[in-house]
Amino acid sequence: MFSVVARRVFPKVVASTPKAFAFRAFSEKLTIPTDNEQQYGRRKEEMEAEAAGDVGFNRDPIIPPDEAGTKENPILVPSGAHVRTVGYEDPSTHQLVWFNLTKGPLHYVPDIGLYFKLQPF
User: How confident is the model at residue 97 (pLDDT cuts 50, 70, 90)?
Assistant: First the structure.
């Protein structure tokens, strides 16, 4: 009964409604992409370097010699870019504090009394 009323009230809408519905079909390849196939940007660079046996991004902490950190002998932080984010543990709060170390001048951290310098490689 409703279809008869709908055809009389909405004749153009009912006539233009498709009789068959489209459906999604799977492609022939039914595999889940690997992690390497889905990565882009810095993560992809890191994974390609690991596959080649290199270290893409070194996450190891820098443990300087005891005599380093003075104005004459600053702690050298290696970097492939002109800026690198460096962190240290605040002695009073025991929390990590981060700062950006830029190429050029020395950076003094008064909390720990040490000097840092960016060393490009």
Answer: very high
